[in-house]
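Lay summary. Proteins are chains of building blocks that fold into shapes, and those shapes determine what they do. In this project we predict the shape from the chain. Here is one chain we studied, written as its sequence of building blocks.
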Amino acid sequence: MTTPRELDGSSAGGQFVRTALALSVLENEPVRLEHVRGDRSTPGLRHQHLAVLETMAALCDADVSGDELGSETIEFDPGLEPDDAGGRPADGPGGRLEGGSYTVDIGTAGSTTLLCNALLPLATILESPLSVTVTGGTDVAWSPPLDYLRYVTLPLVRRFGVEAACEVDRRGFYPDGGGTVTLRIAPSSLEPIELTERGPLEGLRLYTTESESLADRDVASRQAAGALERLDSASDLELTERCETTAASPSPGSALVLRVDHGTGVAGFAALGERGKPAERVGEDAADAANRFLEGAAPVDRHMADQLLGFLALAGGQVRIPAVTDHVETRCALLEEFGAKIDLEREVETAVVSVASPLDGGQ
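And here is the predicted shape, written in a compact code that computers can read:
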């Protein structure tokens, strides 16, 4: 049995767990994660992290220990068959993954979008289409809202070869969750990601959502009004799409996502409704983030900078990001643990992340 790669999560959160598990599958390499979410007030696996672990295990028939709530140590060994020489599987550098249809219930308002993000890189080793239906929170704190996944993340990664789409059956806000989405991924081949310059601004798309219980207060419309009034008029952004949705949900809630289209890609900015927070303020918060982006030179927003790193490690290339956040540093360090050669060049207002030698799982 191959000795597992030992990884220390004492200074990281859930992102570390999700990324480590995805890399384990992509590279067909067993891992042992210790001190899981060690820097959080409630360390160990919570419902949303356990759901990712169980989903990854089901996809590749992995051997797992520590798959229980509160666990601070995990051992995960992908079930991909090695070749006769005892090394990589014969049909690919990191093995090939069967597709199929799966159903996941997080059991709380844990983020469905973070689980979907963890699965997207597996497109590069799929042998057949994969469909995963997830029940949980679709628009909750500390994670991308559903419309960010659908209208920012997926359109951008599709530009570089990932074939994936997301369908929504029901929204799920905090605290009850209960939202249901289906992520569909097809076998994909990544192209090198070259995203260092922002092209000319092409337009603005606005997606605003309210639960049915908030419809009589015109929350979705007021969120949109707040965002549009706050956006920097100097940018000359033309509103090319405005989508207002009233959605069934077990809990009251709202969300707004702005998407800026430019010549080389897209960038997204989101805000969630909160009890006692005026709907207009929700739109203003998203617009403030968009205005900061428009003042800079990076082609991607702060959150996409982090999300793209896994694809960059698999495909190679370079991306200019607006800031080196803690999430960026943590993910870069983890990718390097698996053998990615990452160069991080800090500039005055931005930074450029480059990968010259992609990981095997992207081939």
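What the prediction tells us: The domain at 301-362 is CATH 3.30.1370 (Ribosomal Protein S8; Chain: A, domain 1).
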